[in-house]
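Task card 7
Instruction: Convert sequence to structure tokens.
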Amino acid sequence: MYRRGLSLMGMRILLSTNRRELIADDEYFLGEGAHLHSLLSNFNRIDEIAVPDEPDIALSIVDTADRGIKFAQTGEGCYSIVGAVSDRELSCRDKRSSIFGNMGLFSKLLVRELEIRGIYSIHSTSFFDRKSNRLYIVMGGSGSGKSTVLLKAISLGGVEVLGTELTHFSLNEGKTKMLKGSLWQNCRMGNLVIDFPELLGRFKLDVPRGDPWHMYRSVPLHDIQVPEDVLDPASIVLVMPRIEGERSTASIGQIPKASVKMVLFQNLSDKVTPPSLLWGQQFVPSLDSPDRQMARMVAAEKFICEAPIVECWNVLSSPSECLNGIFPVQTGDGGKAAGMNERTGGTTCLVH
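Output:
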């Protein structure tokens, strides 16, 4: 058996297999290149360590001639995959859905194990405005427009990125700690070419040939990251977007934070609860369990009650208007809140 040691947010990870190439592809773990399937689009960093004798997480992959695939939890923090793994890994066209892809089974295991250790993962982009000491957490599932909101904030200027896909938090004796997440942004090229063409030069990207809405690029945002690994913002703003490119009017309104509890619980479940479809063909049931769901609901309640949340916004708008009235435009005269004193384009409906 070949073995490899990795570390993520203090967790010691042991990978073992009878086929070395199954755990040797650094495009998933350590690659600095723009790989859409990299785990670095979910997590801030994964470090190579000596093979741990007492790992927190152990995943064993046994490649056999048996065409069936069997996944099992064999103990506390211990998992195994047995079957014709190698053939499927080599023939998989979209590596995001492979075992170690950012939409694969291993990523769900990591989020689950972080939860067990008290670190919860909000499916979100997040950015920090140091002038106001406000952290903006843009929550949403795939296709909701959270990446669009992040690009809009970057185009306005003055923000520091805390996470592009996951934003982590821990709760300890009434104190909420926000932990740095991923810094690689998988962008749909249409968002850049059509909605924010001014960012193409910043990201050193050319206008692609063909339909940009069917193309993705992984963009590094390390140069505008929050320097702290643990952030203690004075205020948190939650944003729940639904962005529609052709929308002519905007409906942007505040809601009571108490009404967000169930939304947050469902969001925290996004990267754990759904079953996996490995390689786009092999069904693996959900890793979730009733006790983990209950713990996640308690975490959602505590976050709503204990975190310094000052505003919660529902946003239904086009990309250009998605931060109207929510985030201050960075201008030479010290900044002016877009839409607070004057709304630009569309209409705004405030709900209290």
